[in-house]
Amino acid sequence: MLEHLLELAKPSARPRLCFVNTAGGDQTWWNAILHAMYYEREVEVSCLNVFPMPNVTDPAAHLRAQDAVWVGGGSTANLLALWRLHGLDLAFRQCWEDGVVLGGVSAGSLCWHVGGTTDSFGPDLQPVTDALGFLPYANGVHYDAEEQRRPLFQRLIADGTLPAGYATDNCVGLVYRGTELVEAVAEVAGPGAYHVSRAADGTAQEVRIEPRLLPGARGAPE
Q1: Which end of the chain, N or C, is more open, meaning fewer C-beta atoms within 10 Å of its C-beta?
Q2: How would you write the chain as a 3-class SS string?
Q3: Residues 128-174 pLDDT 10s
Q4: CA atoms of 21 and 26, how far apart (whole Å)
Q5: Is the pLDDT of residue 221 over 70?
Q6: Residues 196 and 165: beta-carbon distance below 8 Å
Q7: From residue 9, how far is each of 102, 112, 128, 140, 178 by CA, in Å?
Q8: What Cα–Cα distance (Å) separates residue 59 from each residue in 11, 66, 83, 86?
Q9: Which CATH code, of 3.90.180.10, 3.40.50.720, 3.40.50.880, 2.30.42.10, is assigned to 1-105?
Q10: pLDDT at 89 over 90
Q11: If pLDDT is split at 50, 70 and 90, which confidence band does 12 have?
Q12: Which residues are part of the catalytic machinery?
């Protein structure tokens, strides 16, 4: 997924890739792993932290200077609260409008949408409905990996708590241009993406979207 993120960015020079791990508490050991992943690669890697304070003088300017940003998983609720506290919600909006490629996993996917299901408040999933909303859809992450995810996501769309949206099994990503979904992509053969909407009878309607396997995906035909 990270390789695909950089391909979408189409940088004219050495690509600049920033990791933002607010949702996981900006752990320094994780930052070290991310830097090590790109050691001896022609990629300029940075990690933007807000714990215990922002680690760059102007976080908004740093983000806008990137070709791509990847947001890690963790607590969606904490991520949103801290981004708004530090003005990163506005900074990311400007990045998106400027053409910086924004991506992420779990909380780092949900945050760009209207909302979805989250374990930010405890082991029983609850809805989050006040995400950044750049994409006017609900987002269902870990659709095949956690038993509460699929039924709750469908119920929240059926009862109008969330708008229609897109869900993904683990190892599947959604690619948008602007606010239009253009494809789903996968790192592994088998998992899928799904469009979930409210049917005329008030129930949830789910339609599978077959993802395109990325180069090197496990289980892809040789």
Answers
A1: C
A2: CHHHHHHHHCCCCCCEEEEECHHHCCCHHHHHHHHHHCCCCCCEEEEECCCCCCCCCCHHHHHHCCCEEEECCCCHHHHHHHHHHCCHHHHHHHHHHHCCEEEECCHHHHCCCCEEEECCCCCCCEEECCCCCCCCCEEECCCCCCCCHHHHHHHHHHCCCCCCEEEECCCEEEEEECCEEEEEEEEECCCCEEEEEECCCCCEEEEEECCEEEEEEECCCC
A3: 999 999 999 999 999 999 999 999 999 999 999 999 999 999 999 99
A4: 5
A5: no
A6: yes
A7: 9, 17, 29, 24, 14
A8: 21, 11, 11, 9
A9: 3.40.50.880
A10: yes
A11: confident
A12: 106, 142
Closest CA to 4 of 208, 183, 222, 189: 183
Q: Tokens 């699929």 appear where?
A: 150
Look up residue 82 and give its two tokens. Answer: 């801290």
Amino acid at 155: R
- Which residues, at least 6 apart from 53, have a Cβ–Cβ distance to it below 8 Å? none
Which of 182, 137, 145 has the alpha carbon at shortest distance from 162?
Answer: 137
